[in-house]
Amino acid sequence: MNLKYLALIFLIFNSCSGYRFLSKKNPFAQFGVRNLYVPMFYNHGNLGNISGVFTQEVLDTLSDFRGLRLTRRLEGSDAVLLGIIETPSKSLKSVEVLTYKRASNTFGESVLGEGREDFNTPTVNQVNLNLRVIVLKHPTKEEINFFQKSITEKALSSKIIFNEKIPLSGSYNLKELDGSSLMVLNSQNTGVQKQLINQLAKDAANSFKDMILYAF
Question: Which residues contact 202 (CB under 8 A, 6 or more apart)?
Fold first, then answer.
């Protein structure tokens, strides 16, 4: 095959997916950011104890970039990455029920008891979250507090390098009572939800990586 055609094919392929070859380089280098401080993500949602896993997944992603050093303190850093976990809207809960099933079909007629009407029980839950990621260059502690607690689409600053919202959603099947106690059942469902949260955190980190590679 003609070398010109080989070169053309390579250029076409590289234009579509070549950014993957640059994925190990510091995407913030053009802004003079070599030392990045990442505090624990702030949780505006109504699901507790999820900030840690989101923070860690993004830290793991950032640690892959050559020329980018993650620092433990604001002092001496070139920029700060803030993560804010939000619910999609004020009226929407982080967890909503997608599907229901009649209790009699789930647990049997004997569970209802004599004279008790049938009722619906949830069978599938959906978790809805947004992760907003903001990178600020040389912010003050007051500016960090402001963006963590009062971030809106209109909150603009000349110090902002990156400001994007990542929508996240996933569902899981609820365990059904099959002779187990309610305490065991609740523990099982909590575990399943935690597994989903862990996966959403990985998805968020991957989306963030793709965003900064495309943007920079």
Answer: 57
More confident residue, 147 or 121: 147
pTM confidence score: 0.77
Average pLDDT along the chain: 79
- The span from the CA of 96 to the CA of 125, in Å, is 6
- Count other C-beta atoms under 10 Å from residue 113's C-beta: 7
Q: Residue 215: what pLDDT?
A: 82
